[in-house]
Amino acid sequence: MIGVTLVALVAAIHIAILLMEMVLWETPRVRAIFRTTPDFAAATRVLAANQGLYNGFLAAGLVLALIQGLPGPGQGLAYFILACVIVAGLYGAATAGRRILYIQAAPAVLALVAVLVGI
Questions:
Q1: How large is the angle between the packed helices 2-22 and 106-117, nearest 10 degrees?
Q2: How confident is the model over 19-38, as pLDDT tens digits?
Q3: Do 94 and 24 touch, CB atoms closer than 8 A?
Q4: Residue 6: exposed, middle, or buried by beta-carbon count in 10 A (0-12, 13-18, 19+)?
Q5: pTM of the prediction?
């Protein structure tokens, strides 16, 4: 099912974001991805870890929806978490950078549509 695959992809994206923000924030590769300087990364380490934790909660909700079953009992949870990801992606795109729209919101929109129509 395409919806299951897309929900799993969105969960994987958020697990990757969790790792980058909580564990790898000050590494050169992650600093390049987020376009930060060493000083900024050091100063915002705790803030980034907090954001990473929230991304982990989104991933956990999607994994739980997959475990509960799609289509099936996990659909309501998937709808809710995907909607949260979309809102977070739209807010991030408006306030932090347009790339977030494509990295975070767009995959969640595709996953939500796929789960809604049952493909």
A1: 150
A2: 999 999 999 999 999 999 99
A3: no
A4: buried
A5: 0.95
- The DSSP element (H or E) to which 101 belongs, if any, is none
Residue range of the domain that includes 87? 2-117
Name the domain count of the chain: 1
> What are phi and psi for residue 92, nearest 5 degrees?
-60, -40
Q: Rounded to 5 degrees, what angle do the CA atoms 117, 4, 61 make?
A: 105
Residues of the chain with pLDDT under 70: none
Torsion over CA: 21, 27, 33, 34 (sign): positive
Tokens coding 13: 């994206």
Of the candidates 80, 62, 70, the residue with the CA atom closest to the CA atom of residue 2: 70
Whose tokens are 């991805």? That residue is: 33
